[in-house]
Every structure is written in C-alpha cells, then in structure tokens.
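Colleagues,

For the teaching module next term, I've prepared a clean inverse folding example: a structure given as tokens, and then the sequence designed for it. I'd like students to try predicting residues themselves before seeing the answer, so please don't circulate the second half yet.
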C-alpha cells in the first residue's frame, strides 16, 4: 500500500528475490489494459476463443508457475475479473478463455494499490471477499516526505547512475530535503536525472533542480 511512486514495484521485486521461489516474477498493471485484454493476459486463451485468437496462449498466471504474480494497481480491476481472480487465488487454478478444463498453479501473490481498499469495498467498487483473501500481510510504504532521512542517499545514488560522480553539495541536498515530493521516489529520480542533463558535466547546483 502506498502513494504512486513510493516504490511498491521495487518492494514486490525484493520480496520475490528473497523468497527463494525458482519461477519467474510476472508483473501485471491492472490499470493499463481494457477488461477483455486484461482477462486474456491474466488467464490466457484457447485457439478461437475470440476474434484474433489464432493460437492457444497461456496467461501470466500460468507463466508464473513456481514464482510470483505481482498485480499492480489491483484496485483498478473490473468487478467481473475480480470474481475470476478470487477463484484462481482460492482454488489455485486457472481456466483459459474458451477452455473446458482448469490448470493448477503454484504462485505467490503480491498486490499493490494506491487506493484505500476498505473505502473501495464500502462503496462496492471492490469485492469484500477478494479484499479479505489478499489481505494476508499488508505493507504500507510511507510517502517520501515522511522519509526525509532517505532523500540524500537516494539522490546520490540516482545522480551516480545518471553519470554524475562528483557528489551532491549540502545546498543541493538541503533543497531536495526541503521539498515535499508529491511524486515520491519516482519524482526524485526524474528531478536528479534532469538536473544532471542540465548541468552538462558540471557539478549539480540548486539552479539545475526543476521541481
């Protein structure tokens, strides 16, 4: 749980890397695809299941066998797909579009959202049974403005990766730590990368920071 840009995807990757699971990490952005495409991406389809389905294809849930499924922005899932996902989580099996049989899966589920799902449940935009099923362990990542002690370390890492090896001055770090970062870590990374470009190889100064 956490605002956009706080690092939810990075935390999901870390959980997968430390899990010891041998299968892959499959990422699904639930807000990026239309309902029909999202269902096919998740569950796969058989040949002829819909126009354009010229061959059978496993979905991302099957492809994550032995690994982790990361459902980013799960609060954006349409209600019909929420019902099908609930069955996949509870029964540990999926049914491709157009198929008559199910396939067992062994995956770890990691979900992320910047919405308050309890509010979504109360307003009937998110299924209460799915919410209780995924709410095993919840990790809330605070916004960057509540983690100001991390800003300097993150900024110096981003600057080094962007090609600035001269470090950051106390004036630059002070300006960074004084800003509220509505876009969180993602915004910090963008500001540093843009500043390095504007500096053109010179030491980064406050004038190069465009908030």
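(Answer key — instructors only)
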């Amino acid at each position: 749980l956490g605002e956009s840009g706080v690092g939810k995807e990075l935390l999901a990757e870390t959980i997968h890397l430390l899990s010891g699971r041998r299968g892959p990490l499959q990422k699904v952005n639930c807000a990026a695809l239309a309902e029909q495409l999202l269902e096919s991406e998740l569950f796969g389809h058989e040949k002829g299941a819909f126009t354009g389905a010229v061959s059978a294809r496993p979905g991302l849930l099957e492809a994550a066998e032995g690994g982790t499924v990361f459902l980013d922005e799960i609060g954006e899932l349409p209600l019909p797909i929420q019902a099908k996902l609930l069955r996949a989580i509870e029964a540990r099996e999926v049914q491709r579009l157009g198929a008559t049989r199910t396939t067992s899966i062994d995956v770890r589920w990691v979900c992320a959202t910047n919405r308050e799902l309890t509010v979504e449940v109360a307003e009937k935009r998110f299924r209460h049974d799915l919410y209780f099923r995924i709410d095993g362990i919840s990790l809330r990542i605070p916004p960057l403005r509540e983690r100001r002690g991390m800003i300097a370390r993150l900024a110096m890492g981003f600057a080094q990766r962007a090609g600035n090896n001269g470090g950051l001055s106390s004036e630059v770090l002070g300006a960074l730590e004084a800003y509220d970062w509505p876009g969180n870590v993602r915004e910090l990374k963008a500001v540093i990368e843009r500043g390095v470009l504007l500096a053109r190889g010179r030491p980064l100064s406050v004038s190069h920071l465009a908030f």
